[in-house]
Amino acid sequence: MRFTSVFLSCVVVTAWATPVTYHSSLNSLDEVLLFDAPAFQDPDNASNSLVSLQAFVYLKQFDLTTLTSALTAWTLGGIGGSIETAVERLKLFAAVGVPGVSLSVGVAECSEQATLSATSGLPDLGLSATNASLGHCDGGNAFTGTLFNADDVVTTTIFPSGTNGFGVISDIDDTVKVSHVLNTFQFIKTTLFDNPEPVPGMPDLYASLIQTLNDPPFIYITGSPYQLFPFLRDFLKASFPNSRGPIFSQNVTLADVSQVIDVLSNPNDLLDYKLSQVDRVHGIYPNKSFLTIGDSTQSDPEVYAEAYRKYGDFIRCIWIRRVDGANNSNERFTAAFNGVPQTKYRIYTDEEIPGLALIDVAGGSC
Ligand SMILES: *[C@@H]1O[C@H](CO)[C@@H](O)[C@H](O)[C@H]1NC(C)=O
Ligand SMILES: *[C@@H]1O[C@H](CO)[C@@H](O)[C@H](O)[C@H]1NC(C)=O
Ligand SMILES: *[C@@H]1O[C@H](CO)[C@@H](O)[C@H](O)[C@H]1NC(C)=O
Ligand SMILES: *[C@@H]1O[C@H](CO)[C@@H](O)[C@H](O)[C@H]1NC(C)=O
Ligand SMILES: *[C@@H]1O[C@H](CO)[C@@H](O)[C@H](O)[C@H]1NC(C)=O
């Protein structure tokens, strides 16, 4: 770590040195990332669908020199692994966002194109997040949204769900994906170099929830920055093919891409951010009831418990994976779950994962 920090401080280059262009429609210099998105019934018009759509527009050409140097320092530091893999996973940290661009996304099953608000300036440079109208949509569990106005075809998966029934909110790192967030060295290694692995038993558990909760939407709330979205999406596609869903991630814009390792290994306090994302889910599906699944490494117990105190049965159950090395003390859980009935939450060990599938969540057990 120390070696790396010293190395990094020698190669300071700021992204803002690159000129920023302002224009209102996409041009051939721009690239677009569309995030997978939930769709839901318009609360003001039952025959209309809305989609909570997010996009990142950035200059197609960007400089990877600084990022590559920073990552080379880590491989030299003994972590080992393919530098190409690491650069590919982290390259969006070096991308330069483009403000003021408006996009439209079309869905074959829906009567209207979704139009996003113009991409933002600083601090969320190049990002846009909008509730956009899709008009009337016909059936289906997943739609493909296609960007209009692009040279390349850019697509996104849109997951529609009805107003009632169950849903699942899940964390990613150390809940469904082996990440070792408590060990900086291991965490950086799994994030940058290793093939991502699911937590054993979780793909089967999530597949069983599709049956027992009658096709719930799965919404993943992660502390990871949006730049890791393609990596996390591909992981879910490979390991959780039938329980995929939108990934709500953090907005992080680096002034200095050489800080990427420090930013990844020293996450901010996730409590407020994750609560804001549970609020976002509540805004989208206020009349559903969610099984919330997380782990004891960061703030999931505190986040889901606070959401229960705020929203009651919108949070149907809270399941927390007990991760070795985390604060698994009674004091912690007693404080976190203050005001939450003991029948509403469960701290589970890895040995207990197969048994979770037998719990009748729909029938009121947790
Ligand atoms: C949720 O349920 C309430 C009470 O039944 C109803 O007034 C409201 O329209 C519902 N909201 C949605 C988004 O379906
Ligand atoms: C990310 O940035 C967009 C654009 O400014 C904003 O609308 C959205 O609320 C931000 N998301 C979070 C989680 O802060
Ligand atoms: C409700 O939405 C449908 C489908 O988008 C649209 O055709 C209709 O005009 C809308 N109704 C109102 C009152 O806005
Ligand atoms: C999107 O729609 C949901 C549900 O109506 C609402 O709670 C939320 O505030 C809206 N978000 C924005 C950015 O308009
Ligand atoms: C664990 O959490 C409790 C409650 O927040 C706190 O009092 C205790 O100091 C923590 N223990 C460790 C080892 O961090």
TrEMBL record:
It holds the Pfam family APP1_cat. GO terms for cellular component: actin cortical patch. Coiled coil: none annotated. The keyword Methyltransferase does not apply. Keywords: Signal. It comes from Armillaria gallica (Bulbous honey fungus). Residues 1-17 form the signal peptide. Residues 166-322 form the Phosphatidate phosphatase APP1 catalytic domain. InterPro entries: APP1_cat, Mg2+_PAP. GO terms for molecular function: phosphatidate phosphatase activity. This is Phosphatidate phosphatase APP1 catalytic domain-containing protein.
